[in-house]
Design a protein that fits this description.
96 residues; mainly alpha
Length: 96
């Protein structure tokens, strides 16, 4: 009986150790990103991603009522359409 109790205590202690207070982020399939991954990629908040989804500006796939995924290619196309990355209009030889 004593061995059974110590085994039960060991399992309970192990369960407490493995349950951390930090949220675990699950990785999406290689061709898809989670909402937090897209937010990090766009350098915006998750709430902004929610707004872009509501406005239908950012393509997404709804797996369940709470789980959505974003195709990486579509997010890349969204970036290309909406954000321009380029050099300033200054020539290299201009000093001011």
């Amino acid at each position: 009986m004593c061995a059974r109790q110590s085994c039960g205590r060991a399992l309970a202690n192990n369960a407490r150790r493995t349950m951390s207070s930090e949220r675990t982020e699950f990785l999406a399939a290689p061709d898809y990103e989670t909402k937090s991954q897209v937010a990090r990629r766009l350098n915006v908040s998750v709430r902004t991603i929610d707004n872009l989804m509501k406005q239908r500006r950012l393509p997404f796939i709804k797996l369940t009522s709470k789980i959505v995924r974003f195709p990486k290619a579509d997010v890349g196309a969204f970036l290309a359409r909406n954000f321009r990355v380029g050099a300033c209009d200054l020539d290299v030889g201009d000093t001011g």
